[in-house]
Design goal:
Elements lengths: L1 H18 L4 H5 L9 H19 L15 H20 L9 E5 L5 E5 H25 L21
Antiparallel strand pairs: 1-2
Length: 161
């Protein structure tokens, strides 16, 4: 699980660098699918990751609107602010947390029961899903997207004999 979080963090940083080469108006242009724009999608990724980790820890959720973070530097700064807490949680992960229950109030008044292991994997898959959207939008702009390849990112050191 830690490996896939690290993968997401590496790819996210590469997308931030990619965004640094794109005009701000393109980063903010509303797109088909996703949560709106390229920059809003990156903000959403950071928000959802931190919010779920906070929820698992029993802390309040993040509720600030994207409009307060509508520049690349502000999104990156928000990510830098949230990242230490997320990384500490991921690095402290214990096998017995896999099936720990999380009770999530639903809008209809019911309570959903989820396992922590399922929630953290949702966080990983959520980002990968949105990174795919960013890749499509990059191609629509005629630009090369960041590689989504897991191989070659130095995530796991091969054993040598």
């Amino acid at each position: 699980m830690q490996t896939m979080f690290r993968y997401n963090w590496i790819v996210r940083e590469q997308w931030y660098d990619w965004c640094g080469e794109v005009a701000t108006e393109e980063l903010l242009r509303k797109r088909t699918g996703g949560v709106g724009s390229i920059l809003e999608t990156l903000y959403h990724i950071v928000d959802v990751e931190w919010s779920w980790i906070r929820t698992l820890q029993g802390h309040p959720d993040f509720q600030e609107p994207f409009e307060q973070y509508s520049t690349l530097e502000k999104v990156r700064e928000l990510d830098r602010r949230f990242h230490p807490e997320v990384e500490a949680f991921v690095n402290a992960w214990q096998d017995e947390w896999e099936t720990r229950p999380l009770y999530v109030p639903q809008p209809n008044g019911t309570i959903a029961l989820d396992a922590w292991g399922e929630v953290v994997r949702h966080v990983v898959a959520h980002e990968i899903h949105h990174i795919g959207q960013l890749s499509v939008w990059a191609r629509e702009l005629g630009l090369q997207p960041v590689s989504a390849n897991v191989i070659g990112k130095g995530l796991i050191t091969p054993k040598t004999e």
